[in-house]
Amino acid sequence: MSGGLLVAGTTSDAGKSVVTAGICRWLVRRGVKVAPFKAQNMSLNSFVTREGAEIGRAQAMQAQAARVEPTALMNPVLLKPGSDRSSQVVLMGRAVGEMSARGYHGGRQEQLLSTVVDCLEQLRGTYDAVICEGAGSPAEINLRRTDIVNMGIARAARFPVVIVGDIDRGGVFASFFGTTALLAAEDQALIAGYLVNKFRGDVSLLEPGLDMLRDLTGRPTYGVLPFTHGLGIDEEDGLRVSLRGTVRESAVAPPHGEDVLRVAVCAVPLMSNFTDVDALAAEPGVIVRFVDRAEELTDADLVVVPGTRGTVKALAWLRERGLADALLRRAAERRPVLGICGGYQLLGEHIEDEVESRAGHVDALGLLPVRIRFDREKTLARPVGEALGAPVEGYEIHHGVADVRGGEPFLTDGRGRRLDGCRSGAVWGTHWHGSLESDAFRRRFLTEIARAAGRRFVPAPDTCFAELREEQLDRLGDLIEEHADTDALWRLIESGAPAGLPFIAPGAPGARA
Length: 513
Description:
Elements: E1 3-9, H1 16-29, E2 34-37, E3 40-42, E4 46-48, E5 54-56, H2 57-65, E6 77-81, E7 86-91, E8 94-100, H3 101-107, H4 109-126, E9 129-133, H5 151-157, E10 161-166, H6 172-181, H7 185-188, E11 191-199, H8 203-217, E12 221-226, E13 261-266, E14 271-272, H9 278-281, E15 286-291, E16 302-305, E17 307-308, H10 311-320, H11 323-332, E18 337-340, H12 342-346, E19 350-353, E20 360-363, E21 370-381, E22 384-387, E23 390-393, E24 396-404, E25 408-412, E26 418-424, E27 427-430, H13 439-453, H14 465-483, H15 486-495
Parallel strand pairs: 1-9, 1-10, 2-9, 3-6, 10-11, 11-12, 13-15, 13-16, 16-18, 18-27, 19-21
Antiparallel strand pairs: 4-5, 6-7, 7-8, 14-17, 19-20, 21-24, 22-23, 25-26, 26-27
């Protein structure tokens, strides 16, 4: 096999990321050397590659699905929102500055398109197949002229495009037809067909609609993927987390001991890398929910203050909602609190920020003996160490530099020398994302939390987060293998879009882009 495919979507969150991962896992199980690719990603969930580059977590997850090491080539442009109108631009794994949406789309696209095409060509020279993920919808007609992630990259690479639609939202037939019809003729020529996602019910009732869609567009549907719980791994968008009542799917597993543990995650503004708590939710008997009210901390055995792209903004939000006072009360009562990255920073004594918020000196919550100074250079690292006598791995993505003035060490080099973070009473803090994925440390940490909370909770001795992640990725591969026309997908990847696909006249100016 030699070629590629672009997985586009009728909307954001249609399922492009998981479909791309599923296709990667299906192909690698068939002996194909495959790589994922997303030219431009907008996400607050990111990851650090072994060479020290920052990329979207979704692409790191897709690389794991493909059983390859993630690199910056797989996500050359990452946009990290700092507000509704501006984002930090990460190019080839390095932050290059803040930019407004108008400024980003106003003048750099030719240079960026050249960069992303070069990255894609490097991957194509190394792998048998490259499975690209689009962003949002390819029919954003106001942005087509500057597009580098949907039809812009598909046309540059001559890749066929499969459009994914979320039927659970409704309107999927109109979305498929309208998305295709709004495209220019040259773009429509690459739209090979459709993939229905999140279907519930009897497929035979859907089939007449699929036949009519083919009559209208001249394009087939390559599969109907059933609605499957628990597949939302490494979600991209930290701005759209469902807050109230959110409980991780695996939390329904019965506890290994007599009690459950309740974990409340403060859903701070611009929340980043909230996937840190997935490892907690993977433990039988641990219930994880996202909260935004002080009263929701009352019954929590552990409160997690997660990472954020706006530490000072998150600090103000906690104070406005009474959550800051609730955290202060918890600390005084020696009830456990864990701060990760930005959450760790706002638990300290004060913050000097002339970089992220430009707020200067800001008093923090004072729960940890730490002073934070924001540096213009971003720390990107893949550290290893030890905590509670167990090995720990993690990754760091932060501008804040910590000056620790006391407390107990949290993470050490194994010889007792402090590496990162600190602990003061029942309050813990670290810059390390992903540390809870280290199984032995997570079990010992939860044992301490249960003891402090007075819960008869016992971590399961055989929970392996890495194995659970592999099982999820295999489930994605199974979805594609069992419910998609894999022979047809194989032909698309090898040979491109079929010749002579009909043009749908849209009657809209966007189609003449």
